[in-house]
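User: Show me sequence and structure for the first protein, then do the same for the second.

Assistant: Starting with the first protein.
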Amino acid sequence: MVQTVTDSEGGEVQPGEMWGFFSAEYLPDPAAPWGRFGLKSVKQESAVDGDTTVEVTITDKGVEVPLKGTGNGPIAAFCEALASHGVEVRVLDYAEHAMSSGGDAKAAAYLECAIDNQVIWGVGIDPSITTSSLKAIISAVNRAVREK
């Protein structure tokens, strides 16, 4: 999208515009929602040196759907939960960082996912690194569905 704007208009993209393009592509916007799926709630239970179980509520076309999955961590458990709903996701790469410091810091997670023979990135931002990771998976799935 940014390349198209700079090609058609010439010149540079300002930081605020860049954030707008980035947000529109990767992040949900309650004022202008896009995408089939949303993440409503997350509950996680982990055993030390054992599996992690997540119970999530997602929205699918606006309808709330409770899901549960188990894996070697919250990301794997979430992928299993989505698979039980017919959405196959494999996480290929993962990166995260804090967007600021302090008690009110937010975490950004970037996940490269394989979805329906596509390799696509998703981004999630949340105070919880776990929730930001799950939001990134939802972002990737929504982008994959949109790309079809």
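Switching to the second protein now.
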Amino acid sequence: MTRAAREILIRPLMTEKSMRQKEEQNTVAFRVRPDANKVEIRVAVETVFNVKVASVRTASFEGKLKRMGRSEGRRADWKKAIVTLAPGHKIELVEGA
């Protein structure tokens, strides 16, 4: 792996769906670099959070077209990784109070 683990993981995704999956299925969702593969994501999560990863699922998303007056632009493409942790392992993320 040529990149550092903190370069691969951009930020955790904290949505209602991901918080529910965290409680029910012991999974955590991250926004990751679009060129990162599953092996790099697994190693990055294991090194940063010191947990054991059972599986990694990824999904790539195209950026939306946006308009500002007459000019058109495009948001950046991004990738989501859903990481399933091994039984007994847990990641504590900052949650809203």
